[in-house]
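Format notes (please read before filing issues)

Several people have asked whether sequences and structure tokens are stored in separate files. They are not. Every record keeps both together, in the order shown below: the sequence lines, then the token lines. Line labels are part of the format and must not be stripped during preprocessing.
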Amino acid sequence: MRLETDLAKINDVTPDQLSHELARLEGDNTRAILSRDDVTYIQTAVFANGFVIERRDGAGEETHCHAVPRHAELPPLKPKAKRGWLAKLFFADPELTSECAFTLDQVQTIFADYLAGRESDLPKQWDQGFCDK
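Then the structure lines:
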């Protein structure tokens, strides 16, 4: 499988490489895609309170889904910075949180299981569409 992040592109990624690259997600390195091909993949994106996970299992938007954790919403990892009224008015919040956020350990497990070709045992469900909450 191929792994792509903002900092690396690795064909035939190993479990150790996958773990290492996922642990580097933060700052300017905000996404990871583990793919079998162009339309079969799992991906994650960094949010202020964790990581959102989505997958696609074929061509067409109807094959795209997002993982919904079975735990309560995670709090932000650090206190939210104060923003002035001008920044609030004209700029998107750079510290977005998501109800669908997972911890790094959970992402590591789900991606490792995907690499191994099995469904993860982690408590979650897959809902159709993109995670927009």
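For reference, the curators noted about this record: The chain has one domain: 2-128. The radius of gyration is 15 Å.
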